[in-house]
Write a structure and sequence with these properties.
With 159 residues, the protein is an all-alpha fold. Helices cover 64% and strands 0% of the residues.
């Protein structure tokens, strides 16, 4: 997904839509609607607009679109998340499901004997979801890591 489509999704998917989000962002609904229209070449969203919208809606589609466009993944680092064997198992099953999604997209892309751009885009999105799930699992394991007595700092967190 490109960043302008992601911004459009964030703005119009917010509770109450553009009309409710705009005043919280300090602008009129008409201005926000124009900024969120990916077909406008003027009155485009700024980085501050995107950051504010993500903060107010907790929709991080813009962040994920930026990361995906540049070969990165974004994962939420939440120190308040409980670290347990069950939490790790939940993440492992999410990874397995995501891997299956990649296989399903590749299978669908190959079904007609041709590969089209939109099919590659769907495979890319599925791969991004796997990468994100794997990094979440790694971060959860990292948060469970016990301190190494040989480390002088004793933090036990290895990144």
């Amino acid at each position: 997904m490109n960043v302008l489509d992601a911004f459009h999704q964030t703005v119009h998917g917010a509770p109450g839509g553009c009309e409710a989000l705009a005043p919280r962002m300090g602008m009129s609904a008409a201005v926000l609607r124009n900024k969120a229209n990916p077909n406008h070449s003027h009155n485009v969203p700024s980085l501050i607009d995107a950051d504010t919208a993500m903060g107010l809606t907790a929709n991080f589609a813009v962040l994920h679109a930026l990361c995906a466009n540049h070969g990165h993944v974004a994962i939420r680092i939440d120190d308040n998340v409980g670290a347990s064997d069950l939490a790790i198992l939940e993440l492992v099953t999410h990874v397995w499901k995501s891997n299956g999604d990649v296989g399903a997209e590749v299978n669908a892309a190959l079904a007609d004997g041709r590969i089209e751009r939109h099919e590659v885009d769907r495979v890319r999105a599925a791969v991004y979801r796997v990468e994100n799930a794997m990094h979440q699992m790694l971060e959860r394991l990292n948060s469970m890591c016990e301190p190494d007595p040989r480390e002088s700092k004793g933090t036990g967190n290895v990144r």
